[in-house]
Write a structure and sequence with these properties.
Radius of gyration: 21 Å
Bound molecules: beta-D-fucopyranose
Low-confidence stretches: 1-12
Order of helices and strands: EEHHHEHHEHHEHHEEHHHEEEHEHEEEHE
Number of strands: 15
Shape: globular
Strand order of the largest sheet: 2-3-4-5-6-8-11-12
Distance between the termini: 15 Å
């Protein structure tokens, strides 16, 4: 018998116990679940426009109704309480609380989030609020979107509005979710809203998202109680060269710069990587980075959120068509990692999560980490008895939580884990065709059914670790 199978005194049945106080959560995002797209003064975001543009989202799906969470807050919070979640990560829809992205807040929009937060607090669940999970007000996109510097200032104003309204009751705040996707899927590859294919514009967008984070962090600190936590969520890639040959290694270096260091370096070192600037010289001279920006971006945060799904394997090669990797198109190709895949086609490999965690421990040892998203899509369906059996998701979650546990044993300071996602939802360009929820949603009736994975996760939480 190995020591990992010994019962732990604090958690009699947990062989992989997590420390007391570890946060066990689930995550969602506004546009993916709320619906009520035109209610109570909300105006369109870039995702409303994009999803209503034929050919952009699978099956023509939109977030108009989504999981109807806007009208089902109490039911959904009750579900969270039944599962025993300690925390819930959600995002605020910018055009719901500040239509058009300028001017005063809309009271009804703020009231919705106040109700959600109060219901959570009433059940003892800690709200973790993200300000931007990709739903830029369309009017700001029409004025130039993230490639334009002004958008960063608009974002700081919006952060201040939300902080003034909810700062007395939300203990943990996140500025942006995955700025990589917002910049590069949205403005370079064009597979996410707003669907532009402008490689240089995407690099400007990345910088303005970084700046927006810094400016918003300052705005939040000014208005929030001292003990409030301020964070940012990235999706650091575990980049692996196909071989250790120099060309494949160079491909990995380029992708590491565009996926990871373009965000980590300004945040934690106050600089942009020199190799990134050199690799993209034909696209831009980076003069959009103005004096003082890097100091603004590198303000301290309380923890870094990271989202992880699958590793990234690259080799020397070329990419045809619009690419999410400005400047790397003629140097890199992406190679499927070996092994089983999820319904997204994403290889299941928890070692990538371990790799990202230990890298961050080495590079930013003083910054606590939170897994703000991890999970998997599978072809789930309710059986004739109304049950949803999803053993693959349980296996995915088990292996990834195991990787987190192992990393913590190696000195990585991980404070919490949020499963993506609480509910089946609008999976961006894939619409409703991909189900990530631990709770099944029948989108015709809006009926919620916890899948086997939800019951399994509830047991993990109750036990304080893996069995
Ligand atoms: C992440 C997003 C989240 C969800 C998952 C599957 O990149 O942050 O909204 O779509 O992927």
């Amino acid at each position: 018998m190995t020591t990992t199978h010994q019962p732990h005194p604090a958690h009699p049945t947990a062989s992989a116990p997590f420390p007391p106080g570890f946060r066990w959560g689930a995550a969602t995002a506004a546009y993916q679940i709320e619906g009520a797209a035109a209610e109570d003064g909300r105006t369109p975001s870039i995702w409303d426009t994009f999803s209503h543009t034929p050919g952009r989202v699978r099956n023509g799906d939109t977030g108009d109704t989504a999981a109807d969470h806007y009208h089902r807050v109490s039911e959904d919070v009750a579900l969270m309480a039944e599962l025993g979640l300690t925390d819930y990560r959600f995002s605020v829809s910018w055009p719901r609380v500040q239509p058009t992205g300028r001017g005063p807040a809309v009271q009804k929009g703020l009231d919705f989030y106040r109700r959600l937060v109060d219901e959570l607090l009433g059940k003892g669940i800690r709200p973790v609020l993200t300000l931007y999970h990709w739903d830029l007000p369309q009017e700001l996109e029409d004025a130039g979107g993230w490639p334009v510097r002004e958008t960063a200032y608009r974002f700081a104003d919006y952060a201040a509005l939300v902080a003034a309204a909810l700062g007395d009751r939300v203990p943990a705040w996140g500025t942006l979710n995955e700025p990589w996707c917002a910049a590069f899927l949205g403005y370079a590859e064009g597979v996410h809203a707003p669907g532009r294919t402008d490689a240089a514009g995407a690099l400007r967008a990345a910088h303005h998202l970084n700046l927006a984070h810094g400016l918003a962090t300052a705005a939040l600190r000014d208005r929030l109680p001292q003990e409030a936590e301020v964070s940012l969520t990235l999706n650091p890639a575990a980049v692996r060269p196909l071989t250790d040959g120099p060309q494949d290694q160079d491909a990995a270096r380029r992708i590491d710069a565009l996926a990871n260091r373009i965000f980590l370096d300004p945040l934690f070192s106050g600089s942009y990587p020199e190799d990134l600037v050199a690799d993209t010289r034909e696209l831009t001279d980076w003069s959009f980075v103005r004096a003082g920006d890097l100091a603004e971006i590198s303000r301290p945060i309380d923890w870094l959120g990271l989202n992880y799904y699958t590793p990234t394997v690259v080799a020397a090669g070329e990419h045809d068509g619009p690419s999410a990797w400005p400047g790397a198109e003629r140097h890199v190709r992406f190679v499927p990692a070996p092994g089983p895949v999820t319904a997204m086609g994403w290889p299941v490999d928890a070692s990538g999560l371990h790799e990202v965690l230990t890298r961050l421990r080495d590079e930013i040892p003083d910054v606590p980490l939170v897994i703000t998203e991890n999970g998997a899509a599978y072809e789930d369906y309710a059986d004739p008895g109304g049950e949803v059996h999803d053993p693959e998701r349980v296996a995915y979650l088990r292996s990834h939580l195991g990787a987190v546990h192992a990393a913590m044993g190696e000195g990585v300071d991980v404070r919490g884990y949020f499963l993506w996602s609480l509910l089946d939802n609008f999976e961006w360009a894939f619409g409703y065709s991909k189900r990530f929820g631990m709770v099944h949603v029948d989108f015709a009736s809006q009926r919620r059914t916890p899948k086997d994975s939800a019951r399994w996760y509830a047991e993990v939480i109750a036990r304080g670790g893996l069995a």
